Amino acid sequence: MQGLHPLSRSFALLCLVSAFGLTVLEWRDPLAWKTANNRLTNEVTSLSNRISIQNGRRPSLFNRRQVSDVQIVVQLSDRKINVYQHGEIIKQYLVAIGQMEWETPRGQFQVIQKSEYPTWQHPITGEIIPPGRNNPLGSRWIGFSSSRDGEIGFHGTNEESLIGEAISHGCIRMLNEDVEDLYTYVNVGTPVIVQR
User: Fold this and answer.
1) Model confidence, pTM
2) Do 134 and 162 belong to one domain?
3) Residues near 183 by Cβ (< 8 Å), separated by ≥ 6?
4) Which one-letter DSSP state was computed for residue 88?
5) pLDDT tens across 24-46, in order?
6) Do both 129 and 179 map to the same domain?
7) 3-state secondary structure of 141
């Protein structure tokens, strides 16, 4: 690696180390000594970055787990959600669930994504619906399952009269005011249990 620019050497070293699955690497800019004597703001002089590498890959938002004292339990037969905090029910919401052939999956999950005013893509036609009055996701999206078949989550609705029905493509529909409230209780990593 001789003859390479110091940044190139650092990047090459980072690539080699990440290929071997190093868990945490502290990286400092090799040119930091040039700016050490300059009177720059703290943001500019703080050139140290912590880079976390897992199995040779940078972590994604979906791999980050936050400890949560909140748990969501979906009861499909009752068409309701119970929100638990420290083992006690603190909220309940009525919901719509997946229709026949598009049943809401049962099991243990965790929140993997949150979004305000989401865009929706129709699972059959592929049509993309931007945020707004005609968007069937309503004002919030809380995703808890993602596979090659699509994504499943809690969301608002533009047809509130259908709450309580088995009508969705697998997601859990809520009143917009309810999903906005639920959104404030959950983080990425919050456990979600979906049961019959």
Assistant:
1) 0.64
2) yes
3) 114, 116, 140, 142
4) E
5) 444 444 444 444 444 443 333 33
6) yes
7) strand
Same domain, 50 and 80: no
**173 in the same domain as 144:** yes
What sign results for the dihedral spanned by CA atoms 66, 43, 28, 10? positive
Q: Which domain holds residue 50?
A: 6-59
Q: Write the CATH number for 126.
A: 2.40.440.10
pLDDT tens profile 40-91: 433 333 322 333 333 343 344 444 444 569 999 999 999 999 999 999 999 9
Domains: count for the chain: 2
Q: Are residues 55 and 85 in the same domain?
A: no
Is the confidence at residue 162, as pLDDT, over 50? yes
Nearest residue to 142 (alpha-carbon basis) of 150, 151, 131, 153: 153
Length of the chain: 196
Rounded Cα distance, 196 and 77, in Å = 6
Angle at 106 between CA 101 and CA 110, to 5 degrees: 125
What pLDDT sits at residue 67?
Answer: 55
Just list the catalytic residues.
155, 171
Q: How far apart (Å, rounded) are the C-alpha atoms in residues 12 and 145?
A: 36
Q: Do residues 130 and 158 make contact, with C-beta atoms less than 8 angstroms apart? A: no
